[in-house]
Protein 1
Amino acid sequence: MPLREASQARWRGEYLHIHRADLIEALQGCVVDRAPDAIRLGARVTAYEPSDTGVTAVLSDGEKVTGDLLVGADGIHSTIRTQMLGPDNPRFTGNVAWRAVVPVARLGDYPPPETACVWAGKRRHAVTYRLRRGSLANFVGVVEADQPGDESWTAVGARQQALKDFRGWNPVIQRIIDEAPLLMRWSLYDRPELSKWQEGRVVLLGDACHPMLPFMAQGAVMAIEDAYVLAREVARERPVQESLRVYEMKRKPRATRVQAAARENAALFHRSNPLSQLCTYGPMWVAGKYLPSLVHGRHDWLYGLDVTEPD
Ligand SMILES: Cc1cc2nc3c(=O)[nH]c(=O)nc-3n(C[C@H](O)[C@H](O)[C@H](O)COP(=O)(O)OP(=O)(O)OC[C@H]3O[C@@H](n4cnc5c(N)ncnc54)[C@H](O)[C@@H]3O)c2cc1C
């Protein structure tokens, strides 16, 4: 389903595929230009200490850093969230995601399509797309699994296992797995909506407050939207605690809706018998080919929102 022109025309923005490292570098460059000392690496926050006038972050080496506000943007295993709300209780979804990035030059006669592609099969699916002007192939392969494993950015999986998971699949997929320099394996867990995102001068953002399954490809997008709205609200002339409450009120319904949509997609891509595959993917294919605006319209609520517009 072509998106390039449709995205500009319908949602006034490009639909981009960006390598995570490139996005982080671009964001870092903007921060350092404005505030050269703003970023400190290797500083692990272990706790926070609130007071009436400020909040103090305690680092693992014992150092304390005090400010007006603490933003817990510390990801799915957030230390700040655990202190604010207690330990969470994630539910294993029964899915495991393989991830790899492979130079297209290594894929010979079997490069993935230049545009994003979902490959749907029995109880598993894969997504391929290109990065860095088409020179890299990105692969995410999701398979159903009985045993939960690590929920970690850095857990590496065995190539033989990945090949087994996609045995008999299209050579494009098998070639990517064969040539991947590294295959990461991430067990997918689900978490319910949090009761709150803020307390006093401490606030959560991104995966720390709304981790989601990757089936809408929107987790990082939601974190960036959060950051924009939070920055705008705290810039207003009013007590910071009130700004944090307004931020939560504005962002929570949207993030929760995207979490739910991602959960629904998990089932959609894993139809296991031929009849249900035909009944699901057939109409999707026909609509994508002949009535793309119908399909695009279903995503207006998601892609159509411009958080930079004044509200
Ligand atoms: C398989 C997979 C595919 C995905 N695909 C997409 C996609 O296509 N599009 C999309 O938008 N999203 C996607 N996502 C989701 C996206 O990666 C996350 O939603 C996003 O990274 C969340 O950003 P964040 O800044 O909230 O958290 P993170 O990216 O996890 O960053 C948290 C940061 O906090 C640091 N940190 C953690 N604890 C501490 C501490 N105690 N002290 C100091 N620092 C700390 C970490 O080192 C890290 O740098 C995908 C996720 C997965 C698993």
Protein 2
Amino acid sequence: MTQEEIDFFDRIAPTWDADEIRSTPERVTTILSRIGIRRGMRILDLGTGTGVLIPFLSQLTGPEGSVTGIDLSDGMLDRARAKYGHLANVRFLKIDFEEELIPDKYDLILMYSVYPHLHAPSDTFEWLFKMNMNADGYLVVAFPADEEFINNIHHDRKAEHEHLPSAGRLAAIFRSWGYESEAIAETKDEYIVTVRRLVQ
Ligand SMILES: C[S@@+](CC[C@H](N)C(=O)[O-])C[C@H]1O[C@@H](n2cnc3c(N)ncnc32)[C@H](O)[C@@H]1O
């Protein structure tokens, strides 16, 4: 992340929860119900922001599991910690997940409303799968909206990877990088793509 990006997220952090109207509890619950979360999972929430997913993930994995929320914006992390720092199975870490090593391995790595912010998605996936993914683990790229909605928010962005393709097209791109990948939702309210290691 550049300092400019960190400053941007610090600036919008105070109003993020009020402005992020698409992540209603109902929509978040529906999206998470589609991605196979089981009790006891170790879950990594990359770009956790103010922790929009955290209470849901904490409950779904239960006391035998854990949730690690990662972000680089102090503005976002301070809010996440204030709201959910008391949950026993939750921790927050300040890390640039594209540049720094994340501790431990996980069963599920989530990127929720985060993918267009990546600078080097294919390198980052390779690194995450190598360093942080358990053998049967999988990654999920998700949004509470379709690509048209997301691209309208990011209309000033020029780099190719910053333009979000349809979920089906993104899954095909991940397959071309050597993963198993499937678009499991492609509607106005749900965009979900799963990514797994290719079984040889
Ligand atoms: C659009 S917000 C989404 C936040 C949250 N997932 C949500 O849906 O409310 C993207 C978040 O990803 C974080 N982020 C982006 N790139 C990052 C990186 N390389 N390392 C750590 N955090 C990053 C930003 O700081 C920001 O909080």
Protein 3
Amino acid sequence: MAPLAPRAPQPDDADPELAAIAKEISGCEKCGLCRTRTRTVPGQGNPRPEIMFIGEGPGTDEDRQGLAFIGRAGQLLTRMIAAMGFPREQVFIGNIVKCRPTIDNAGQKDRPPTPEEMTACIPYLHRQIAILKPKVIIALGATAVKGLFGESMTGITKLRGTWLSFDGIDVMPTFHPSYLLRQGGDSGGTNKAYWDVWGDCVAALKKIGREPPARKKI
Ligand code: SF4
């Protein structure tokens, strides 16, 4: 197999502590996902962000490029971040696990990480959060909430829109962009789940003292 091209430099690479964690992750073999990954995906963005987004784990595109949220769901997230008034580089985007989980570990279809995989990987995220010190975390989907708060935190539909706290940082749980895509994405303005998530993003903006941009359903 041809050697992989180096991962494109990211803004957080300039932060020595984050870069050291990313390097550690790149050689990690703490769970079985190391055997099927193409690249590790430590997360990327502003090393001093106001807002941090946390998802579940890398998918196909992320696994190929070593970057978080760059597939279809990532593009939707990028549009949402832009609607909030931020360039993507101004926030930090990461995941609960740093290697792609696939069904039967066959490298075909994505699956959520197991509790054991999350337990093995979560210390990296905890260390990243301690360095990043975001004002607000937006947890994208059920797995992100479970990864941060434990397996007993179930029912994202009920949890979303309600503030939680992780290590003194306000956390807003909301739906994952992949779920939004399955519900119709952001085209047409009739996807209720999309506007639920937008409402959660507005709450996050208000929490950090920013005026939310006006948007209306079309
Ligand atoms: S998912 Fe996390 S714990 Fe498992 S091998 Fe990858 S970096 Fe290590």
